[in-house]
From TrEMBL:
Keyword list, A-Z: Glycosyltransferase, Manganese, Membrane, Metal-binding, Signal-anchor, Transferase, Transmembrane, Transmembrane helix
Annotated localization: Membrane
Any matching Pfam family: Glyco_transf_6
Domain of life according to the entry: Eukaryota
Keyword match Transferase: yes
Main location group: membrane
One of the GO biological process terms: carbohydrate metabolic process
Species of the source: Pogonophryne albipinna
GO CC annotations, alphabetized: Golgi apparatus; membrane; vesicle
Database matches in PANTHER family: ALPHA-1,3-GALACTOSYLTRANSFERASE 2 (PTHR10462:SF33), GLYCOSYLTRANSFERASE-RELATED (PTHR10462)
Protein name per UniProt: Uncharacterized protein
An annotated Gene Ontology molecular function: hexosyltransferase activity
Residues binding UDP-N-acetyl-alpha-D-galactosamine: 172-174, 177, 263-265
UniProt keyword annotation of Transmembrane present: yes
Amino acid sequence: MSDLASHISSVENAHPDAAIIVLGDFNHTNLSTELPNYHQQVTCPSRGNTLDHCYTPLKEAYRASAGAPLGNGLKTRNPILFSCCLVLVGSCILLYLRYLANFVPVDNLPANREGKLRRIINLDDTLHFGARQGVETCTSWKAPIIWEGMFESDLYDQKHIQNQTSVALTVFAVGRYLDAYLKTFLTSAEQHFMLGLKVTYYVFTDLPEKVPSIELAPNRNVKIMQVEKHSRWQDISMMRMKTISDAIESDIHHHCNYVFCFDVDQEFKGRFGSEALGDSVALLHAWYYNAPNNSYTYDRNPRSKAFMETGDYYYHAAVFGGLLEKVKNLTDYCFLNIMEDKLNNVEALWHDESHLNKYFWINKPSRLLSPEYCWDQVIMEKSDINIMRLIWAPKDYVGLRPLATKNTN
């Protein structure tokens, strides 16, 4: 029984949103002794005086009642047919529970069942993929592309608040970028980013004493992390991958379960909420989301580790995120490949963004954010953009970037 309980626990960890039902012909034992949160659903004899077992984590998942026997000694006469019937019944129960989870209004559930049923809801099953005409809402590998009008924000917020989700936001403000952008970035984030959730802003800067003080809501705080200032802006951009990975390992994993990484020269303008959270999250680049694949600016240099002949989409490195372990895998991958390029005297076309695109080509993201989540107002054609959640700030590369030089690789 302990082996069965261990296997069930591993299934729960691998599929936290699944409705789990345990059926079995183990009449002389009790699963609840090993897993107290699992409840026996069969309360009346199913065969003579025998009480078959059916366990679920939902105490009142369904009501058992006696009915006419299924055949005459079916289990004895045809055990294969009996097993098929048992599997069929279990599958029907599972489908019915999933139906209830997705279509019964959660706010109308009895209070003692509401929390448990919320946990088995797969919120992405509630996405309205047909709500947006003219734009792609799902990838070929079935990852959702999040646009305004596709999601019920209250459902996502309630689930993440209930699960006590905590989010780390990383941002780099080095050199002149601190004075130019950081205060606007942080104050606008407080108005729009993951409201209602626990958020820690990790500000990486070479000038910790100049980080502005801003008013923060409850359960939100700022951590200032001092970093080295590199002589070239390209190195600042590329070395952030190692810095983020190191911060996840040394600090962030103690406090948060999700990480979102942002460029500082941006301003939040609308809700950037829990609907954006996922295992591995990538952002469609505003300039390329509806452009042909052959126009994507992948690194075309075969000498670079970022080299790509083709890909799925062009992703913008100004925003990426996901679960801690997923973001750490991404940043470690990018850093190691950046360093290998350096050893070969190669620099990818768009630096860390080129390596990020290569990573997401190999390791498909589980969630894509539409360009509503990072829009450039210079783009005149914006009929697809119902809301600008985050916008690019005006750029002054000559005045802000140290030794801004043309990339010749």
